[in-house]
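Instructor's aside before we start: the two examples that follow are unrelated to each other. I chose them only because their records fit on one page, so don't look for a connection. First example below.
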Amino acid sequence: MNINVLNNEHNTQESSSVHEGSEHQQPLILFFVFFGLFFGGILRQVNQATKIPYTPMLIILGMIFAAYRNELGFIGDAVKIWSQINPHMILFIFIPVLIFESGFNCDWYVFKRALVNIILLAGPGVFIGATILAICIKVILSYDDITWYGALTMGSILCATDPVAVVALLKELGASVQFNTLIEGESLLNDGTAMVFYQVFINLEKGRSSNPVSVVLGFCRTSLGGPFLGIVMGILGSYWLRRIIRDDVLTSTVTFIVCYICFYLAEFTFLAVSGILSIVVLGLFMSANGKVKIYPESEHAVHTVWSFAQYVCETLIFLLTGLLIGVEIVGQSTITTSDWVKLIVFWVLMIITRYLMVIILMPFLKQSGYPITQQELYVLVWGGLRGALGLTLSLMVLVDDEIESVRLKQLTVFYMAGTATLTLLVNGTTCGALVKYLNIVETTAIKNRLLQNTVKNMINNCDDKVKSFKGNNFLQMADWNKVEKISGLEEIKNEMYRSQEGVNISQRKSTYTGFNKNEVLQEIRFRMLRSMKGLFWENYECGQLSANAIKLLDEAMNRSLEHTQKPLKLWDLIFVNFSDFQTLKFMFAVNNWIIIGSIAKTYILQHLSFVYEVVSCFIQTAHEIEEIQSSLPISQHFVAQIDEELNLSVKLAQHYLAELSDNFPQIIKSIHTKKAANSIIEAQKHFLLDYRNKGYIDNNDYIHYRSKIDKKALMLENMEFDLVLPTFQSILLQFPVFNSLTEDQLKLLQQNQKMKSFEEGEEIYTKDEPFRHIYIITQGAVSEQITQNFSLHIGIGGILSYAHCVSDSDQKSVCTAKALTHVKCNYIPFGIFKEIMRNNRSFEQRVFMKSIIYFVKINPDKAGPLKNLNENNLNDYCENAEFFSLANTQNILFENGAYIIAGSMKNSRSQEVLDQFTYINPSNDNFVALEDVYLIKFIEQVVKKNRQTVMEQVEDVDQNIGFQIKNIKGKAKDVEMEQIQF
């Protein structure tokens, strides 16, 4: 490790006592790093146990080491070596890590929304603060031995708040994300602007003559050039990261490379721009764009590495600050008793200054971003903690030989170290109490009720576990009373009992019915949007969403989360990001031109693929979230209202997909092909990972095959597809449902088909009206309204309708089909289609399987647990089931249940007759076909998801808890537990 050492005159004697040989110094340098981290680890645990701020303890520890360095032997020698480090090295080595890590972990969406306010606080705010602090130093504290330029230099340094300390504080406060990001963003940017102001004023203090024009131009170059460099390096870094597959080490290394190269180019080349600002912008750029360029499996490793680096740098900076204060100031200082008194006064003035700064900017802060309330203003002022960058800059002043005033040097370090310690010790430890006093973090009654119900469900779940464990042969000797006590279950039950003790039923009921309806709906929207956001990220991590798609969907969820008091309009937030059809049609028109054609074709495929994956993922996730919402411990009446809002967006999304198919049918095939191929690749990845984890294959084999799969994924990403319109013949040849047909059967379909077009909104067939044809869609999309609350959207290659194929020719239609867009269909006489089905059992089986969803929804009373499954889950069960065609009098067993598609059967034991569209429960009874029967036999039992309403669910939980609490308390009377009633 190479460290620049300053040989100041007052350190000459001390330096001579240190062993001169580099062979002896280098081990001591390395030793002190880990020695410092050792004590840092101890103090970190002290902080966790006592809440004493971590960084002030490090400063004090460093000062103790410095004070006793001559008595500490080789440890003292290491202290002497490190105490001579040039503070510029602290800035170059440690500060980039702290700044980048804070920016990288910032919530970009919220930061972007609050950007104007952040710039106001970090730009004009720092200048106003530095000016007022300089006036305080010169006028109120009467430091006449310091020049105005020196006072402005001190003011600039003392205005720099510490993002690391602020982030640590915000995690404990529990304030809103918007307010947290405002404070964190201000701390990030004001480090850069404080550094720029410091450089301007320190040069003036050194007597370097500059005219106002050159000062302004230099300031603009430094403050604007740094962010521009950060963006350029962010683009290069993202480009590199996008091409790294499953390499945690290289991914983490690249982030460090771009961070330090960016800082070096800014500070040490002809660019001469702000290194701090360039790192701030680089970190924010990587937060906005770089995160989604990182391979999902590597993201956790990258954040772990950066968290470790941030902790190491923070620990060493504050420890070194304590060492340098102890060596440079204590014992040879111009600091007097009056300076200590003035320090306390200055700390108060600094808080007042920050308050004045915010008040001056308040009219502008209310005009953009997230408006600041009066309560948040107080927390913003009180939460301005000082830390690493300010200390580093003060140490740079201390060792700067060009500054003649020793008094300025030592006062700068004294005030910076003092205010850092005071803000961390006083402001940091009391900010939580201030937030609580001002009631900034307000918990609604409905949120408390949801939390209470969650605890009840957790207790019930734990009791179920206890019951199952009691039957475990390896746990029979356990003391279950002690288990409940050790695990905390008994304590939770007692708290639940105490919270409900003395409350009668009428009081409870009135409490629940008193909830504000809008408040309940707002809470449901919040939870639903947060769940959807999580599901979108799961899809991204599983490879089902691209980086651009997850960014769009994540931002749509974030924007919706800001307006949960209003009905959901998710589709409007998504749709606004898509190109209009006229632009895409123009691209199609020029896709065969020279040069521009290849650009147009690439744009078409990429944009429409992007649109399709966004819309299809949104629709699928919306269907998933409906099931999740049904288990939310809130009255289903409110949940249903939110589901209606969501379904409106889903219908608009489905209509847009239909328009997409209608306007660009040639691209849909390519999109479907790419999406299906990607799904197969992801399935291969998960399969190999599962087999490796189970020990079926060793790691070398896993790496070998996984690298092949990764290459295929990369090829797929860059693969080009032909933009060809699908024809009726291509549909018959390529769509899965038709690929079992023989050549003669395909020819028969082609000979008997005719083309027909339908305009948007036109009915193709109507429920309860006779049907004579089977339709195959070749362009556009159709909605089949099966019941009042359920419809299917059928696209290119779909059959209208599978349910008709099961029916006899004289029957009537079971649903209504309506064109969502301009639709082209090839229709085939019903008799021809049925003849092909009778002659091709494989094709017949596929058609019958596809028809089940219709009859389950039409006949829910006969569908058993199948009625509780959504379309995807039902299809999964049916795909895994066995299809049977039974002749009259044939016998069969249904150990896992079955579903009769056509015909009727009789239970030999109970003599019960079951007709078509009926679910048969799992049993060992023998069933006899009473006529020709078509059915599916499940190979696994359909899990019946009895989703109770909240009132039933919580009542059951409450009753269980009531009995358990009575046992704990030894009470003789029954404890009546309430049920939620909104």
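Example two begins here.
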Amino acid sequence: MRKHSVLCLTLVLLLLGTLSFQLFLMGGVRAETSSTEPTVENTNTAGSTSTVTDELEQILNAQSTQQEQHQFQAEINQLLGILINSLYSNKDIFLRELISNASDALNKIRFLSLTDSSALNAYPELEIRVWADTTNNILKIRDSGIGMTKQDLINNLGTIAKSGTKAFIEKIQKEAQTSDSALIGQFGVGFYSVFLVASKVVVTTKNNDDKQLIWTSTADNTFTIIEDPRGDTLKRGSEITIYLKDDAKDYTSATKLKELIKKYSSFIHFPIYLHEVRTETEEVPIEEEETTTTTETTTEETTTPETTEEVKVEEEKKTEETPAAPKTKKVEKTVEEWNIMNENKPLWLRSPSNITEEEYIQFYRAMTAATEDPMMWDLFSAEGQVEFKSLLYVPAKAPYNMFDFTQKTNNIKLYVKRVFITDQGEDLLPRYLNFIKGLVDSEDLPLNVSRETLQHSKLLAMIKKKLLAKAIQILHELSEQDKAERKEREEKKEESKEGEEKKEEVKLTKYEKFWKEFGKNIKLGVIEDEKQRKKLVSMLRFTTSKTNESISLDEYVARKKEKQEQIYFISGMDMKEVESSPHMEEFKTRDLEVIYMIDPLDEYMTQQVTEYQGMKIQSIAKEDVKFPDEDLEKKKKDLESLTKEFETLTSIAQMLLKEKVSKVTISNRLSSAPAVLVSSSFGVSANMARIMKAQALGQEQGGMDWMMKLRTLELNANHPIIQNMNDLLKNNVNDDSLTNSINLVYDTASLLSGYDIEEKNKFATRIIASVNSQLAYKNNLAKENKKVEEVKTEEVKPEPVEKDEL
């Protein structure tokens, strides 16, 4: 807040500095009069004709004859410091501003050359050059633009908040009656950002209509202008020499300069060259003197042998052992070169019909530094109240931190007249589309004075709206193409099967690849974006009980059973859990398709989407499931009959489990399982309960216990366990064994239905007791059977016969 107050005060001082003291005094008198007028009593009596208006006229008349005119004064060095440090939050901005100014100067001379062919004679090339002197801590930026006359230097560089570019635009628009301009400057303060890093600035400039001049300033109260004693060295244009502050020495680094130019000015229309120095190694021939010296040294070192024969032998050995002297050697040399920094031209300014696929891919890789080709892209223009061009890409792979919403994304880059402004415009697209990369370029976006951030306005809101609509349209069109692609794939698959048994890997369609990477984003959009929800829901994909392929809700509805009123789904942790769920038994019997929802986001999504195309989206693990072609009257009678038969059992179970379930009933949806837990329409499913408990502080949620109790234990009247328990009650057996059996049935139903068991120790004790009881019973039965067999054996055992009798 303090920073904005200082900025506002500074701008007010600048704008009012040229106004007369008379206007200020008049305003003050009017304000004072206005403030005191309501307290004046009505004195319009018969003896008084004076009014407040008369008094005001007298004051104004006196002012017109006696007034003194004064101008506001300011300490320019302090004012400039406040202005610069209040406007800019990032020192790097200065290079963008200076290059933008250079681009404007080049555009101006280009405009003039359209009507005056001799304007470019002095220096035909239109370019920008940047180089640094690391030894003296100096940075230079030169352009071959229009240059400045002495009056331009006084008016534009000597007057804060006066934009020569803005005046030039107004002039050419007036003459040409057009608003089309590639000129960037508008506020008249961009040049002064150089003092963020400079202790002194020297501007050498040459205009076709003036001599070469030098403007110098150290950001104090004064600046100087002299005629350049060196004469005409520039031919045309301007050269800014920046004497860097001690804490800004890193701006002499070629690496740093390259990074900033590519970030902010990569799409400037004119070529930007950076002077770079590198060291390389090369092979050079060894001079004759060096070779001779080496040979002589070798000869001297051999020493003189006593005899000639020994000399010959020694020389022969040396010849065999000593390698030939090298003819070249490696030396390092310094290479200076000018490298172009903005080879990538603004692709979005061209017509889409003239851009090849390879160009789109190359531009994507250059813009994002990606190693993989994009999955899809779209270049479009928006017209109307706000005009802009945008190029959007969908990457092939999801980033590893896509759902880390604490990190600011920099996927959408914002340009104004091809000058980079910011990549922190996370509001341009909602967070569920944070994987989309691209750019937006506008001619008239509302920026703050520093051009670092956007101003919030109706134009910006319209850009966001159009950008979102286009992004959704791209993805929706891709989704619509998916069905045709899958049909074509199936046809090819059938053709390849004829006479072949070889199994080939299924080739995914483009949307299947997209869904694999970004399906969660679409689900998140369904949850968060109410306005786009209808389109996003049609893009959802699910596997079902009848297919391993992902299908849309439209496809599910198209192949539903006759008179089917609900879209059935079941949620769980994984495919095995949902496929083996007891809730699936009746649906398999009736051949009804059930959607498998195994993503945690699905649970939240179904809370927002309750119906589709007039069909209710129904969890088969909850109440109110309706089957098509069901005889409701017969079902009601059968259920009433079974309920009456098992009334005692359900009542006892209800009383025993009153803290865990809301009611116990007889089921009409089971065939093999003894029981199942069913959530009420307003309760939470087993999967949702797990998700809520897994969240931070999930078990402390106030309504959790209450919602967990909104469950029904449904008993399978046809299962032997339930029938045996009911028979025990008919025989007046109601002991601990029955209580344990009911609790065990409940615990088993919890596991089968996907719920956690609350009392795991008691469950384990019951299982152990049950196993022990069964084993003891079988052991006792085996002992009894053994005794019976022994008795039978003794009864039929023959008496022994003696040999004599034989």
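The domain at 90-272 is CATH 3.30.565.10 (Heat Shock Protein 90).
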